[in-house]
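In response to reviewer comment 3 from the previous cycle, which asked for concrete evidence that the modeling workflow produces usable outputs, we include below a single protein chain processed end to end. The sequence was submitted unchanged, and the resulting structure tokens are shown without manual editing.
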Amino acid sequence: EVQLVESGGGLVQPGGSLRLSCAASGFTFSSYAMSWVRQAPGKGLEWVSYIYSGGGSSSYADSVKGRFTISRDNARNTLYLQMSSLKPEDTAVYYCTRENYGMDYWGKGTLVTVSS
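The workflow returned the following structure tokens.
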């Protein structure tokens, strides 16, 4: 059974940093690209970042470019999202997703709240 479990969310002040993790199981993690997607309160889903299966290439939404860094540890079956210079508009539930001609599996999400 494919499972994606996010962790690391919480309350952080504007300008602060946070690192999200996504533990993957039930599939060969190193064979799949992965993405982070977020949903702000009362808004739709927003794609945040994408990383290739080998981790050698990634891409970012303009809204987070230069502030967020996606990475992965294929030996630990774990996906990461390092977030810095956080803004109140980054407040959202963050989901990790598996890429397989579309996002075919999603975790339950972790809430990030950026507020003073």
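The longest strand covers residues 18-25. We consider this sufficient to address the reviewer's concern, and the full set will be provided in the supplementary archive.
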